[in-house]
Specification:
EC number: 1.1.1.100
Catalytic activity: a (3R)-hydroxyacyl-[ACP] + NADP(+) = a 3-oxoacyl-[ACP] + NADPH + H(+)
Helix content: 40-55%
CATH topology: Rossmann fold
Keywords: NADP, Oxidoreductase
Number of strands: 9
Shape: globular
CATH architecture: 3-Layer(aba) Sandwich
Number of domains: 1
Number of helices: 10
Structural class: alpha/beta
CATH superfamily: NAD(P)-binding Rossmann-like Domain
Strand content: 15-25%
Order of helices and strands: HEHEHEHEHHEHHEEEHHE
Pfam families: adh_short (PF00106), adh_short_C2 (PF13561)
Family: Belongs to the short-chain dehydrogenases/reductases (SDR) family.
Length: 290
């Protein structure tokens, strides 16, 4: 899809790329969908700020972009901490010569439990990471977005089908991702009329990332010294097959999406190809839930 977008960009007289001259902050960009967003945005001419809690991974992504001729800055920090948000905005503004055009709120992970066993820590962490941190980052970017300089500004918040339809074992994640939709629509209504800021949500279905890999693979993230296992138990994935159902039977395309396909959707909605789209939730699901 990214090659097709590049072809369209040339046809529409964007020879330097769809995002040429724009500065983009992408959170959670040290790996997975965020890293692919960073790569694709840089390929379209954006100056990319690679934000991630894992500094070495963020720098690795930024280094690859620079090696390919793009411009990128890695900024490490835990977005659950206010000082990290302030530092990210400060460094992004310096990198962008005082301007920031795009924010992709992508950082996140899952911390599952059924409702009657979910701890306050699990609940609060998911709400803080998926709603409060994006809100605070948008708030901190107000001086750079609420401007009238004729240049485009837009926010892309990442949600999930869990936020649109709910999901057993994910009351915390589903509630947070549902709240993101309301936050997005409010940004569009508040900052669109006077400043032309666009805000949209991209809700992912089953995408091949560490969050959907086999939990037995050992992926984890650390929260205040506690290791949180990531992924889906293999036996849960096999349960459908054991019952005679195809693994992706509820997806019309009969497969999971790739990180590149997910990132391409984010690029499309952030680009001028979507210049009259705002306040919307774009489902990237392979047709699931239609």
């Amino acid at each position: 899809m990214s090659d097709r977008l590049a072809q369209i960009a040339r046809q529409l007289n964007y020879p330097r790329g769809l995002l040429a001259g724009q500065v983009a902050i992408i959170t959670g960009a040290g790996q997975g969908i965020g890293a692919e967003c960073a790569r694709l945005f840089a390929n379209e001419g954006a100056r990319v700020v690679v934000s991630d809690i894992d500094g070495p991974k963020a720098e690795e992504v930024a280094a690859r972009i620079r090696a390919s001729g793009g411009e990128a800055l890695a900024v490490a920090g835990d977005l659950l901490r206010d000082e990290a948000i302030a530092d990210l905005v400060k460094k992004a503004a310096e990198f962008g010569g005082g301007k920031i055009h795009i924010l992709v709120n992508n950082a996140g992970f899952t911390w599952d439990a059924v409702i009657h066993k979910m701890t306050d820590k699990q609940w609060q962490t998911m709400l803080h990471l998926h709603v409060t941190a994006p809100f605070k980052l948008v708030q901190a970017l107000a001086p750079y977005f609420r401007v009238k300089d004729g240049e485009p500004r837009n926010v892309v918040n990442i949600s999930s089908t869990s936020g649109l339809h709910g999901n057993a074992g994910q009351a915390n994640y589903a509630a947070a991702k549902a709240a993101v939709v309301g936050l997005t629509k409010t940004i569009a209504k508040e900052w669109g009329p006077a400043f032309g800021v666009r805000a949209n949500t991209v809700a992912f279905g089953r995408i091949e990332t560490r969050l959907t890999a086999d939990k037995e693979a050992g992926g984890f993230i650390e929260v205040d010294g506690q290791k949180v296992a990531l992924g889906i138990p293999a036996k849960q994935k096999k349960a459908g097959a054991a019952a005679g159902a195809e693994q992706f039977a509820d997806i019309p395309l009969r497969r999971a999406g790739t990180a590149t396909e997910a990132a391409s959707a984010v690029l499309a909605i952030a680009s001028p190809l979507s210049s009259y789209i705002s306040g919307q939730t774009i489902s990237v699901t392979g047709g699931r839930n239609i």
